[in-house]
Amino acid sequence: MIPELGQFALILALVLAGAQAFFGLFGAARGDLRWQAVVRPAVAGQFVLVSTAIGVLVHAFVTFDFSVLYVASNSNSALPTFYRVAALWGAHEGSLLLWAWILAAWTLAVAIASRNLPASFASRVLGVLGFVSFGFLLFTIATSNPFERIFPVPADGRDLNPVLQDPALAIHPPMLYMGYVGMSVAFAFACAAMLEGKLDQTWARWTRPWTTTAWAFLGIGIALGSWWAYYELGWGGYWFWDPVENASFMPWLVATALIHSLAATEKRGVFKSWTLLLAILAFSLSLLGTFLVRSGVLTSVHSFAADPTRGLFILGFLIVIVGGALALYAWRAPLLRSPAGFEGTAREAFLLYNNIFLVVAAAMVLVGTLAPLIADALGAAPLSVGSPYFDKLFPMLMLPLGALIAIGIHAAWKRGQLGSSRGRILSGFGVALLSGLVLVYGVYGASKPLTPIGMVLGVWIILSSLFDPIDRLRRKLSLPRAIIGMTLAHVGLGVGLLAISMVESYTVERDAAIAPGETLVLGRYGYRFNSIKEIEGPNYDGVRAEVTVLRDGAPVATLHPEQRNYWVQRSTLTEAGIARRWNLDMFVALSKNVGGGRWSVRAQLRPFLGWVWLSAGLMALGAVFAVSDRRYRVRASAKESAGEPTIAQGSAAEAS
Amino acid sequence: MRINFRALVLALAGASLLVVALPCGAFDIESMPTPEMQARYDGLTHELRCMQCQNQSIADSPVGLAEDLRRDVREQIIAGKSDAEIRDSMVARYGNVILFRPPFNPSTAWVWVLPFLLLLVGVIVAVRIVRQRTALVASDDSVIESEDVPR
Amino acid sequence: MSRFLIPAAIFLALAGVLYVAVVHSPNKSTMQSALLGKPVPEFNLPVLGRPGMTVSKAQLSGRPWVLNVWGTWCVACREEHAALLEIARQNALPLVGLSWKDEDDLALDWLKQLGNPYSVVAVDHDGRTAIEFGVYGAPETFFIDADGRVQYRHVGPMTPEVWEREFLARVPRGGLP
Known about the structure:
The complex is a heterotrimer.
Chain A: H1 2-30, H2 33-37, H3 39-62, H4 69-74, H5 81-86, H6 92-113, H7 119-143, H8 167-196, H9 201-232, H10 243-268, H11 272-294, H12 308-332, H13 347-378, H14 387-408, H15 422-444, H16 450-474, H17 481-506, E1 508-514, E2 519-522, E3 525-536, E4 540-551, E5 554-559, E6 562-566, E7 571-575, E8 577-581, E9 584-595, E10 598-607, H18 610-627, H19 635-641, H20 647-655
Antiparallel strand pairs in A: 1-10, 2-3, 3-4, 4-5, 4-6, 6-7, 8-9, 9-10
Chain B: H1 5-21, H2 35-47, H3 64-78, H4 83-94, H5 110-136
Helix pairs in contact in B: 2-3
Chain C: H1 2-24, E1 44-47, E2 50-56, H2 57-60, E3 65-70, H3 75-90, E4 95-100, H4 104-114, E5 120-124, H5 128-132, E6 140-144, E7 150-155, H6 160-167
Parallel strand pairs in C: 3-4, 4-5
Antiparallel strand pairs in C: 1-2, 3-6, 6-7
């Protein structure tokens, strides 16, 4: 009985989403405040209903209700509680429900925070969000119902994919969806502005915190996925340019361009077209990501049972959303001109160059990811695209971007005035060049040609970012959170660039078969395979090895790589043994038992890999500071005194 | 004289450990006769896609097909085939799809060229915008709010 | 207006590609055999259950035949087995099995239990022959014409529809010699 309650709740939520969209958009168009007053209650109701649906599904998981097909397919009586809850998003249907719930939550947040925005604008934002919710809920109910029952009820479930039975991967989808869904808020703000016909600097200021928050979540989600891949997939890599990874990376690149474009629009009223198009593009790429991983077009060549229905639905939704937004854009194009001027070395110009590189990078990733599909559609020769393509082209775009960032940080609005920053630019570059050369030729040794370039740029970006805040402190000026945030994020970027250059150039790797007692040698380091014993966990058994890492013969770390066989799904997974030092990761993973007591293992030394995660953390932290800046919290009273009607005033007027 | 077999076995085991613990270390599972061949083997096996997997090279994949293809690469290197010949043999049997790096020939060059075309378009757009905006600087009398506020 | 046209055009092109991709996805071009139109690779393999006997490309030339790659470890092969038995009953084309990376006694047991649709089964223990055919998973079924050229490869379990549409349709009119 209870699972049907969840289904019913979803259907009701669908109705409310429809109401939210209808009354929000048409209420604003007609200027009808009573219609608009329906919107916020609809949002609240939708949140309650979708929460109920999710609660029902979680309950089904936690109580082992295998009569629900989704639970039977993704859980098992031996599954630990934490993963029983995480199993909610373990497969398609449940993860769609998670998407819908996160969307309802963001919408609720927007509804609360927008009470002081002009009524018609807020109604339109919520109306657009309602339209998106409607699409997702309809998709869920029509093609991907998580509450479907199965008869006869199986005695036990098929277990959660063992690959997902891991803390990092458990939290990765919610983080990622917070990012994807957050892009819908930026999109809604863009559409609302186009519908209102008011695209000004105030609008940009309202949009920024939402977009920055979504960007931060997306970045964290991507970093978590990458971190998980590193220790779980057993070959020590952290980024594979896999279609699924690319599907999340593209919106992140575009969102980065968007937050910078918004900065220019807020400050100077320029780049309105760019900002609108980037908002549309970011959200489209989020939807495209959803499409790519669920429609079966980009899975392994041996998947036969692709369900075109789901793919067609999302594609249709994508066309309606993006087509509609582009139509609005075409309609409002005349409003987008601004009289502001700036020079080629001005901050606005650098942001423009920035964005061009970011968008081209995203386009390049899109071309690479879709290449097999494009070739097929055009009837051209079949081909596939993998890491070598991306690894070659991405640095070619990112390194010039790095240089532009290091210089552009110093540029002033409108007139650039880079001349007055010449000292900072040159000294920053000088120190960076020196440190880069020392690291490459002094400490680590020459490697690929791009290595010193990446390292110099990384250090240069860090130094460039620090000049302004330090100068402000010196001159006893205020250091607003927005500036702290920007500094942290840019430093994070520099750290990331430095770390990736180091890791890609100086990783040492060896695959070998060793037996207990033997030592695998990697330069000054040795991996001594001490022992291997059998282990058992709640829903798996396997082996656990003990490996001591020696440096110049002296032990520096002990690693415990495991290999687990999960009983129900009968799949085998590796858990790598990793010791992390501030400047090095020591990695070992078990591959195969080759008989005679020998195991084939992969051993790696990865310098500065940890700094890649640090970089993601710094960027997200920067976003937190930026979003909490005072100027986003002060506008409430300013708006009311300006006399524009808010919902609160509107209903008061009605009541009197 | 009673021989303490346990001690003997342990001594032999210990001695063999000693031998193995010397700098020669352990041997590779699929090692090639020369370091140059090993480098070629590593390079090629990382460039070839495991056709059964989502997105892995035959170097990284544990499945049977990957093993078979690695063995094929190994045998071809030892038989004296060049890297290009080995790649061609793979493409002849599995199509372009087996290469992670799309080849650069008339039917596949578009995938390499397209990003550069887009960059070119981007540069042209940027130049145009900057020209337009620079021309507006003289007539732009907007005041830029300074962010220098005393603490 | 151009501000709008360019994004719109790009978007429409992309939507077109994705639409085609979704509709095509059950039979992607990546699954097309690279050997289409090319001669069948040379092989000379032992026959399952007949020690001392071998089967080779030369023995099979001169008429169209079908190669089915399978293994007892392959779940989808089990799914297609009934269809293969039916196809064998119709006796339109010789069905040659390729026992891929399997053990002979397991393979023999399987055929004994489930029925044997094959006129002969070639044994490929180490997979060397299969990779010459560009096989990357089981089951796969090849149509080879009378001149010894590969004309079609079906990836996945064989079904009566595919058999009729792709295999029988390629049998030359006027029957087999």
